[in-house]
């Protein structure tokens, strides 16, 4: 099916025949770490430890600098350096900590492999804690996982014992994380299972922690708030109840006894049916602080999620702010409020959550989603760094111009005892870890942005492509022009393309229910929570479409700081890409493009489809530069994505046309699916 | 979902609001006969009869000429006129027969409604017999029917009695046929059921014949060759056996007793498992002549099908010629050999069957397929007249230049006792008769071409569109420019588009097995007749693709007359549209376009997809000019067609690419389906 063999009739064929022997099949398992070193190196280091041993080994196996060079690894206290920071020179890495040395080694090797300049530099991470959240269930399934089952947990019938295979995989996992600066992993789903805190499971957590430790990766656990009553034999889990307090203290002690560097707890409480302090008429602060007190002696932290919304009539986008702002200042200093990037739920585009920058007396950490729950699972090629960059660079104005989300969370604006950032993992047992070869770039990008929240998406893509696809012997200018450039362009456009063909102009939450994959703007069965149905969010009717969150609507705009609040409140100044997030907009509203809203919507969806088709062409053209395995895998996925994009376009345009009653502009390619069929098929899948 | 109401924001909307009240929903049941007359007329006719009464009624109800005019209907013998012919003037129709008068009336009314010139003209039909073949089974199903069940037959459990509803429907059917000149109907499937010749079924045939008679439509039956042994109690059906001969004579007598104008028999013998004279070591001539002798006294004819091919290794395309040519001159004069237009089986494009013009001492009639077995069923908009026009105008050279198929079959070249043409009907119980509103145009076009085989597709489309879609009050220039012109263009392109996205460049028989709808170039299970599998026909391998029928191959070219044989035999002079029919062609063979075969194939498939997308645009644009019912029905079908075209393109390009090993040119839109999935889905449907 692929065309890169025996192409004997073209010049391209001749080129291919020269290149082909250099390309070998790649299953994607070695990620961005597939390159071997090219020369010997002397490593000088006065100390020894498991972590330093790894640092030395990586240098020796990955060295691509001058052959026979000497590299000094120096551990000494330097106030210019944070815990994981390091000073980098061509032949020297200096750090306060062993993990700092290891990060320095990965930085040095990466620069060698990508051809980046290595000059004297002091490099510190943006966040103290850079954490993957695994939504892995103890039975081995993964909520919103699209790359196979859990690497940590197995079906209940299986033993919890740690195997050699486990250790190998966890080592590879830890190394990949360390290589991009990730230093923490929450091992289980935020929809937590109470049995995770029982001895047999904790024993396995210890096994995992032992493997992850040398790579500087701490383990954390999601815990069920009602654990005391569910597994502790107590009658309550009231956070102010002395027995409950004692239970948690004892549990924490038990954990630290076997995992001395345990990171802490992640808690989803009073959210989507999870138990929490409000069940006992206590506040989120009461609950979080109780746990924080238990963890404090060991240096552990509580990451308390702000993703809460009740069944009230209040605009769902407003509720987290409404619940948490009154508690600002009431949390212990080892509590961090973990806030999803947007106020609803990881949609292709959301404005930043208004809690960022607003909670001035509380540590706040961003949570982004690496797994593509709403962005085409592991079928669509969507490079997420541009979304995260857009988010991190959003100005909250909370402490004046330049109070970006990044600066409001990394300690630049507010003094925080702890800083952190979390990404919901896209990792599973699939050979290539992430299902889609390009989904690896999102794991990579999360780590890189967590390390340095000022990096550009372009720079990260550049690194990742070079590390992941560049082969020895590839002539540089040729490869740069014909592979690196077009593939990078594709990656950088891919998130906007997904927005275009899924939810342009601020549309959100109009996906198919449950699986959150295809379109489902129509879905609104009786007896379903309204704020789980697309019509709640798009509010299409004969007069227009969009959620009125202006001052005359739900007034969500007022949760933002001026001048942003006013900008968003005015339909004429609200950015077009968030228009329908904040405004129920007439179908004939004229946008700055000169088009009506309806026409603009048509062009956006159509542009999305065209962009994916262009990605297909881009990918097909680079065939001579990539091994057949990855070429074909990605080609096949792009075909599916292209077809899906068309389905999204057809479904949304035909659905909304019922309200707009306006024709799809005649220069746009027509739908090829009928709305009735799409709805029927969607319903069949449920 | 449709957009032609309440379009309050555009100028188009205003136009629509003016037009809309004039458009009323149309279910398609009244076909091209939906227009009522506009003025009174005096009809003068000295005679009376059921047929003449119909002629008068049609004139009175359909008159759109000068109000109060007088029209004379004159029956008198005129040697310039054939049986159904007539002389037309603005106010007079003269004919030898009553049916001639009726045809003249329909011609006059049609010209009034379409605005065609009415001047003094003598008009004779090209063929004496213009016959629909209904592949209807006695249980009411229809082989290759895509418009519901049979209008003639019902499930076996139902009574055979004729109801008022039957009569109404048959009357409408007869009238539609008469209005386009069709004067015969074979009421049952060529894969005949012996019980059709039993008394209860013949009684129903009589009921049908009684309704069809006044409209000049004769009834015929497909008969099973083994009827004498199957229902006659005889031990054999050997055509030379006296008892068998007597049985058929008696049966024919029985039929004519109740249906005095019965037309005759259609026979599929020794073909695809049907019994025939060869079962008794007799020839096709022996079989046909035996029946012809029985029918002769009553003026009946035998239409004996040449669609035969054995399981031998002989090229299937050659076999009909091989079997029938040696019998030329051996058939009775009331036998007509019914030959499918192409030598294989109603493919989107075939060369004409070499039997046309070659059988110089035998009457030969063309059989074309109106039902779209291989052309997208009643889902695809494919106007077939261009295919038939191409076929009828093909030069056989059998009696010198200009010996077109049309002239070789209509009596212009050879003296034939009888001339005829058959079309396999696309009619069923669907409200709009044909499933697809545009499929009506194929019924219409068949009738018109059977009447006048020199008509152009363009002229027929012009008539049909005006009769079928034009509404009173439509401003002429506006309607002509914005509806007639684009819709006609779409129709005229539609068959070539289907060829492009299904089987371009002479590819044939690569459809999905059984249902003959989607693509299935891969289908070749073990233990299946090779000449039923696509690989038998496309013969793709690493060196090229196509069936070598040149002199060094199967030598099918030699069945054609010079200079055609030599032209087809030479890969450099064989027309590109038949290249792979006649030549196994190297993938890198350069065509006159300058492209390699592989590239040309890619562009053809892609062009087909683009053409259908253009049809969608065309149709969407004409929305203001058509009622919402038909607009939406056709819009929905075009969407499906567009998606199907993409599937065809993807399936065929990805399948053949396995052999060509060449890339799809990079300016072509990429496949969005994966070959494995397409094959899997295809197999699932079987």
TrEMBL record, chains A, B:
SUPFAM superfamilies: (Trans)glycosidases (SSF51445), beta-N-acetylhexosaminidase-like domain (SSF55545). Residues 1-25 form the signal peptide. GO terms for molecular function: alpha-glucuronidase activity; xylan alpha-1,2-glucuronosidase activity. Residues 434-667 form the Glycosyl hydrolase family 67 C-terminal domain. GO terms for biological process: xylan catabolic process. One of its GO terms (cellular component) is extracellular region. InterPro entries: A-glucoronidase_C_sf, GH, Glyco_hydro_67_C, Glyco_hydro_67_cat, Hex-like_dom2. Residues 118-433 form the Glycosyl hydrolase family 67 catalytic domain. Its EC number is 3.2.1.139. Keywords: Glycosidase, Hydrolase, Signal. Transmembrane segments: none annotated. This is Alpha-glucuronidase.
């Amino acid at each position: 099916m692929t065309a890169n063999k025996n192409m004997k009739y073209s010049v391209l064929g001749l080129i291919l025949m020269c290149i082909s022997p250099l390309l070998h099949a790649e299953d994607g398992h070695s990620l961005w770490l597939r390159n071997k070193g090219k020369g010997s190196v002397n490593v000088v280091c006065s100390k020894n430890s498991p972590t330093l041993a790894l640092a030395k080994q990586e240098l020796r196996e990955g060295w691509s600098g001058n052959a026979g060079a000497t590299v000094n690894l120096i551990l000494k206290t330097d106030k210019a350096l944070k815990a994981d920071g390091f000073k980098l020179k061509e032949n020297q890495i200096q750090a306060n900590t062993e993990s700092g040395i290891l990060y320095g080694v990965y930085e040095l090797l990466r620069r060698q492999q990508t051809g980046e300049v290595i000059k004297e530099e002091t490099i510190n991470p943006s966040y103290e804690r850079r954490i993957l959240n695994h939504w892995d269930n103890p039975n081995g399934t993964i909520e919103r996982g699209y790359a196979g089952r859990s690497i940590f947990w197995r079906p209940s019938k299986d033993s919890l014992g740690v195997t050699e295979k486990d250790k190998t995989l966890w080592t590879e996992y830890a190394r990949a994380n360390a290589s991009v600066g990730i230093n923490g992993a929450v091992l289980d789903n935020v929809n937590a299972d109470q049995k995770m805190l029982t001895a047999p499971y904790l024993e396995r957590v210890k096994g995992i922690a032992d493997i992850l430790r040398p790579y500087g990766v701490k383990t954390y656990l999601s815990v069920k708030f009602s654990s005391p009553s569910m597994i502790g034999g107590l009658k309550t889990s009231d956070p102010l109840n002395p027995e409950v307090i004692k239970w948690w203290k004892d549990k924490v002690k038990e954990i630290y006894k076997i995992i001395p560097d345990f990171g802490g707890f992640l808690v989803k409480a009073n959210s989507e049916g999870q138990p929490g302090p409000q069940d006992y008429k206590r506040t989120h602060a009461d609950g979080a602080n109780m746990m924080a007190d238990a963890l404090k002696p060991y240096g552990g932290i509580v990451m308390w999620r702000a993703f809460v919304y009740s069944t009230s009539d209040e605009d769902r986008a407003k509720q987290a702010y409404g619940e948490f702002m009154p508690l600002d200042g009431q949390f212990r200093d080892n509590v961090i409020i973990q806030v999803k990037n947007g106020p609803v739920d990881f949609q292709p585009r959301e404005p930043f959550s208004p809690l960022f920058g607003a909670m001035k007396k509380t540590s706040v950490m961003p949570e982004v989603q690496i797994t593509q729950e709403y962005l085409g699972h592991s079928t669509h090629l969507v490079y997420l760094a541009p979304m995260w960059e857009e988010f991190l660079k959003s100005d909250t104005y909370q402490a004046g111009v330049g109070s970006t989300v990044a600066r409001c969370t990394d300690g630049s604006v507010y003094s925080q005892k702890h800083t952190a950032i979390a990404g919901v993992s896209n990792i599973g047992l699939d050979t290539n870890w992430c299902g889609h070869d390009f989904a690896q770039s999102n794991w990579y990008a999360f780590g890189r942005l967590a390390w340095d929240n000022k990096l550009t998406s372009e720079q990260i893509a550049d690194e990742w492509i070079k590390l992941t696809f560049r082969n020895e012997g590839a002539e540089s200018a040729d490869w740069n022009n014909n592979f690196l450039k077009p593939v990078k362009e594709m990656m950088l456009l891919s998130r906007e393309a997904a927005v275009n063909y899924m939810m342009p102009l601020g549309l959100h939450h109009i996906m198919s229910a449950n699986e959150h994959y295809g379109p489902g703007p129509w879905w609104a069965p009786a007896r379903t929570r309204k704020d789980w149905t697309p019509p709640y969010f798009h509010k299409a009717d004969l007069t227009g479409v969009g959620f009125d969150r202006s001052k005359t609507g739900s007034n969500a705009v007022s949760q933002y700081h001026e001048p942003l609040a006013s900008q968003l409140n005015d339909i004429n100044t609200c950015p077009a890409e968030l228009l329908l997030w904040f405004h129920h907009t007439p179908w004939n509203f004229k946008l700055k493009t000169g088009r009506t809203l309806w026409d603009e919507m048509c062009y956006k969806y159509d542009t999305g489809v065209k962009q994916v088709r262009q990605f297909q062409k881009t990918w097909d053209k680079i065939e001579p530069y990539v091994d057949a395995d990855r070429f074909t895998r990605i080609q096949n996925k792009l075909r599916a994505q292209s077809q899906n994009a068309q389905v999204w376009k057809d479904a949304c345009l035909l659905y909304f046309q019922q309200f707009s009653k306006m024709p799809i502009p005649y220069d746009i390619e027509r739908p090829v699916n009928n709305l009735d069929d799409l709805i029927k098929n969607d319903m069949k899948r449920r």
